[in-house]
Every structure is written in structure tokens, then in C-alpha cells.
Amino acid sequence: MMRYGAFLRPHHRSGVFQLEDRVSYDFFHDFDLKRYSFHRFRADLQHYIYPFRSEGGLRRDRFLMIRGLFSTSNALSRNAVPFYLQETLGGRNIDGDPTLRGFADYRFRGPHLVLIQTEYSHRFGSGRPPAPDQPPPSLLKSIPHALG
Q: Within the chain, which residues score under 70 in pLDDT?
């Protein structure tokens, strides 16, 4: 099996908006059995909005993330997409990205995928964690930085 592909990774950060996108087109070629060659188009669009400001600028510890993921595979003639290369939903995918958090990892599988997900993140605690050269804070002072 060999994979050929091309991708674009546009990203942009301007004011309260940040875009982290990846669009790719891949061709998977099966040299051995010649039954599993297929094409895949995938668009993963992640947009972040930072609505809160502080004295020093934007607050990066509070944000709204909107993610759209679309993937479609096209197997040629009598070929098929092998199960281990099909897209999955549920828990985290093979790349470690969260998909449907309420389900077990790899719960749903298929050659096509559409996902729209929104997340609001707000980290508890104020200030920043201590610098590496400073002594670690007490347990009660470090807990708010780990929760959100």
C-alpha cells in the first residue's frame, strides 16, 4: 500500500479570530491485492474566537472553537476502502483529535464522515502558571490552573 497526497494548511490569526484549517486529497494505491485502491478528500476546518480581553490584550484562556470536518472516500471500480483506513467517530480519532466525546474511541466507522462541533473553553484560576525556574506552588494553588 502506498499513499500519495497533497494538502493545504491555511492558518490566520487576526484580532479575536484564529483559523487552523487543513484540506487534503490523497490517493491510496494497493500494489499487492489490487482491491483496496481509493481516493480521499478531507477538509478539517477549526476556527477559534477569543471574545474576552484583559489589560494586556486578548484572554487566550477563554475561547469558542467551531470545528467542521468533512471526509469522503471513493473506491475505484470493484475496490473497497479497508476497514482500518476508514474514518472513525467517537472518543478520539487515530490522530488524537476529539470527535464525539460521549462515545468510546472508534465507535462509528465508515468511508464518509461529516462532523460539526462547537466547544467553549474557560480555564479556572487567574494569572499564569509559575515559570520553570521558580519553585512549584502548593497543591491548592496549582489545581485551578489544571481545571477548566
A: 125-132, 134, 136-148
pTM: 0.78
CB-count burial class (<10 Å; 0-12, 13-18, 19+) for 28:
buried
Interval 60-80: pLDDT, tens: 888 999 999 999 999 988 899
Give 34's contacts (C-beta < 8 A, 6+ positions apart). Answer: 79
CA 76, CA 83: separation in Å to the nearest integer?
A: 16
Residue whose C-alpha is closest to residue 85's, from 46, 39, 44, 21:
39
**Closest alpha carbon to 72 in 17, 111, 37:** 111
Q: What DSSP element (H or E) covers 143?
A: helix 139-146
Q: Which helix (H) or strand (E) holds 41?
A: strand 38-49
How many other C-beta atoms are found inside a 10 Å radius of the C-beta of residue 9?
Answer: 10
All residues at 6 or more sequence positions from 46 whose CB lies less than 8 Å from its CB, including other chains: 19, 20, 21, 65, 66, 67
* Predicted local confidence at residue 145, as pLDDT: 60
Quick check: 46 and 33 in contact, CB under 8 A? no
